[in-house]
Specification:
The chain is an alpha+beta fold. The chain has two domains: 106 residues, Homing Intron 3 (I-Ppo) Encoded Endonuclease, Chain A (Alpha-Beta Complex), CATH 3.90.75.20; 57 residues, no CATH class. The chain has four helices and nine strands; from the N terminus they run βββββββαββααα.
Length: 174
């Protein structure tokens, strides 16, 4: 186990308030004013948990006021290697799934299959829909939501993503 002074904290891309640490844990950051007037950065360890049916540790992050659950090894790998977990997959070298240190993680390029591409589209749709719901203040009686519901009936993910992208871009949310 590294000494506290030997720990390396790296910012997680797309999540500016969170850091991955060389000890394999995820931290949130908070600026604290000290008595001498300096601004110090303090780290608070996030509580990791194992979701039912999974063998990986996960943490909850908040992005754009939306809570997201993400596997710890993906966040640590992303911070230390720069490999986007939506385009790469991470494996544990020593098969110890609770050891999320950067030294135990290996990055592999995802094979682009129809299944992987569909999964990426579903994740994008989920993120955009969360922003959309928040923008309309969860008012499911408004006209724009009713239009969206009609599109959902067509069961066309690409069409839904395009609709949401156009709407959110017009509202300057993406």
């Amino acid at each position: 186990m590294p000494k506290k002074t030997d720990l390396i904290y790296k910012s997680i891309p797309d999540y500016p308030d969170y850091f991955a640490c060389s000890n394999g844990k995820i931290y949130s950051s908070k600026r604290m004013n000290s008595t001498d007037g300096t601004n110090n950065l303090r780290y608070k360890e996030l509580t990791a948990y194992i979701q039912p049916g999974s063998k990986y540790l996960s943490v909850n992050l908040v992005k754009d006021k939306t809570k997201i659950s993400i596997n710890v090894h993906k966040l640590v790998g992303w911070a230390f290697t720069g490999c986007d977990p939506y385009k790469y997959r991470y494996t544990h070298k020593r098969k110890n799934y609770l050891d999320n240190t950067p030294y135990n993680l290996e990055c592999h390029e995802l094979e682009i299959t129809d299944e992987n591409e569909n999964r990426l589209k579903e994740l994008e749709l989920k993120e955009h829909e969360a922003l959309f719901r928040r923008n309309i203040n969860y008012d499911y009686r408004c006209k724009i939501w009713k239009n969206y519901e009609v599109l959902k009936l067509k069961n066309n993910t690409k069409l839904l993503i395009n609709f949401l992208k156009i709407y959110l871009t017009a509202k300057k949310m993406i």
